[in-house]
Amino acid sequence: MRPIHIALAVLVAAVWGFNFVVIEFGLGSFPPLLLSALRFLVAALPAVFFVGRPKVAWKWIIGVGAVLGIAKFGLLFTGMDRGMPAGLSSLVLQVQAVFTAVFAAVVLKERPGRLRIAGMAVAFAGIAVAAVDEGASGPVLGFTLVIAAAACWGVSNVLTRKASPPDALNFMVWVSVVPVLPLAGLSLLLEGPERDLAALRGLDWSGVGVIVYLAWITTVFGFGAWGFLLRTYPASSVAPFSLLVPVFGMSSAALVLGEDVSGLRWVAAVLLVGGVAVTSLVPSKPRAAAPVAAVADPVSDPGSAPAPGAGTAVPLPAVGGR
To answer: 130 with 181: CB under 8 angstroms?
Structure first.
C-alpha cells in the first residue's frame, strides 16, 4: 500500500475508535434509541438523493436495516447507556467477527478450519476475561447488551454477503433509511415522549456535533474511505488496519473520558484482538459453489468486504459503533 493510503486506513480506524467516545458524549444529551434514530436520519439525508436507486432487492435492504440498524445499534447504544464503558465497548464489539464466522458456517456452509476455530476460542476467552473484569466493577446488563449487539452485527454481515451489493455505499445509505422510523417509534414507546422532546428542545451545538460525527464522519467518510481502500487493494492488505479500532477506542476513552484500563482488560484486549485477527484473516474453506464475495459493513466500523480479484471472502473485524 502507498504511504498515503496507509495513513488513510489508520485515520479511518482512529475515526471509528473515537466513535465510541462520541457516543458516550451523545448519551449525555439524548436517550439511546433516539440518538441512534437521529444518527441514521442524518446519515441517510441528504445522501439518499445522490446515491441513486437501490441496486439490490429491497428484502436485503430491509433485512440488513432491521438487524444492523435497529437491533445492533439499538442494543449497543442502550448497553452503553446502561453503563458499559466506551473503551470496553469498542473492544467487546470486535467479537462480531467470530459471530460472523459462526453464522457463515451455518448459513453459507463455509467450513472454518482448525486455525479459525482456534482463533474463535481465543477471542471468546478474551470475552470471558473482559466479563470477569466488568462483572467485578460494572453492570452485567450493559455488557450482555453489547455482546448481543455483536451477534446482531454478525447476522447482518452474513445478510450483506448474501445480498452482494455492487455498490456498497449506495447499499449502506439505503440501509440507513430503514431504522429511522422504527427506532424513533421504539424511543417514544420505551424512552417516553417527554424525554425525547426534552432532548430535542435542549439540542445545542455539541449535540449537533455528536450527530454529525456519528452520521457523516463515522458513516459517510469512514465507509467511503474504507470502500475506496478495498477497491484499490486486496482485502487481506486492508483488513489488519481494522484491528486498530479497539486500540484507538480504548486509548481515546482513557484520555478523554478518564476510563481506567485494568490489567485484566489489557489481557482481554490481547486475547480478543489476537483471536479476531486469526478468525478474520485466515481464509475459510468455501463451499463447492462459487465463493461469495464479502461486502463491507461500515456503519461504525468495517464488516466484510471483497478483495478485488481475490477468490476467497475474508470477513473483516469491526468498528461502530460502527
So the answer is: no
pLDDT value of residue 285: 59
pLDDT at 110: 75
Spatial separation of the C-alpha atoms in residues 30 and 195, rounded to whole Å: 8
275 and 124 Cβ atoms separated by less than 8 Å? yes
CA distance 20 to 127: 18
Q: Which amino acid is at 119?
A: G
Nearest to 165 by CA among 315, 15, 306, 8: 306
Residue 322: the pLDDT is 58
- Please list the ranges in the chain whose pLDDT falls under 50: 288-320
Query: pTM of the prediction?
Result: 0.82
> What does the angle CA 108 – CA 173 – CA 284 come to, to the nearest 5 degrees?
20
Q: Give which of 294, 282, 303, 239 is closest to 108, Cα–Cα.
A: 294
> 72 and 156 in contact (C-beta within 8 Å)?
yes
The pLDDT assigned to 238 comes to 74
Angle at 120 between CA 116 and CA 126, to 5 degrees: 145
pLDDT number for residue 307: 34
Distances (CA, A) of 73 to 39, 51, 77, 322: 10, 23, 6, 8
Q: Which grid cell is 103?
A: 453464522
Cα separation, 299 vs 133, in Å, equals 28
**pLDDT value, residue 301:** 43
Nearest alpha carbon to residue 304 among 290, 291, 294: 294
Complete DSSP assignment for 252-286: HIIIII-----HHHHHHHHHHHHHHHHHHHSPPB-
- Listed in sequence order, the residues at least 6 apart from 242 whose beta carbon sits closer than 8 Å to its beta carbon are 13, 16, 301, 302, 316, 317, 318, 319
Identify the pLDDT of residue 283: 65
